[in-house]
């Protein structure tokens, strides 16, 4: 396994094991994720990449019987330490799911929701400004600015997914996790999401799960290949695709399995 030697590591997983009850899903994962870059997690279905992603903001805590061993630090702080503030963690580490999940509210209220519950604005004008900024950052503003108070459920699938990204960005996270954000979208909508990831890469640490190798090659700076709950290889994306060190990585990239 390769690891980048950069000093600007945002996230560090060390000896990470994860269990669903008696079933072990991750085995001794050591992975350093650099700050303000896009890191792609790739591998066949069931290899542990989404489980690992959800470990980074403790989304797995809601699963009965889930257990974690090892450490995950963000900016040097162990997110699984006793007394760690999970609410603060999830403000810092936003999440975009595979299937867009807008609330049955207006476009505006979808984005304002996190700002309201976290009491992050001081006035209606401040709230309006933050909502607009988040929607602009998600490359959606020009399409929805005249119907902000219409139901979000009236948007297309691709627009709904960008709205969910706007909702995640509104509370000013430092890390954005994306679990196959374009897998349910048509090619045009997929391209919009990929373009958006490229636009956001200098401002956020982005970790994206994808089973689409071409997508990983297009949008990521670094790539990690998972197989059977293990991290097989990690390197800059160009090296992973041009000169993989492990035969299993090479076989996956060549389409021999997965």
Write up what this structure looks like:
The protein is of the alpha/beta class and 258 residues long. 35% of the residues lie in helices and 26% in strands. The chain contains ten helices and ten strands. Helix 3 crosses helix 4 (124-137) and helix 4 (124-137) crosses helix 6. The longest helix has 14 residues, at 124-137.
What's the layout of helices and strands?
Blueprint: E1 9-20, E2 23-34, E3 38-42, H1 49-55, E4 66-74, E5 77-78, H2 86-92, E6 93-96, H3 107-117, H4 124-137, H5 141-144, H6 157-170, E7 175-179, H7 187-200, E8 205-210, H8 213-219, E9 222-227, E10 230-236, H9 237-242, H10 247-253
Parallel strand pairs: 3-8, 3-9, 6-7, 7-8
Antiparallel strand pairs: 1-2, 1-4, 4-5, 9-10
Helix pairs in contact: 3-4, 3-6, 4-6, 6-7
What's the short version?
The protein has 258 residues and is α/β, with parallel strands linked by helices. It is 35% helix and 26% strand. Strands 6-7-8-3-9-10 form a 6-stranded mixed β-sheet, sandwiched between helices. A 4-stranded antiparallel β-sheet has the order 2-1-4-5, with helices on one face.
Features:
single chain, 258 residues, alpha/beta, six-stranded mixed β-sheet, four-stranded antiparallel β-sheet, 10 helices, 10 strands, 35% helix, globular, disordered N terminus
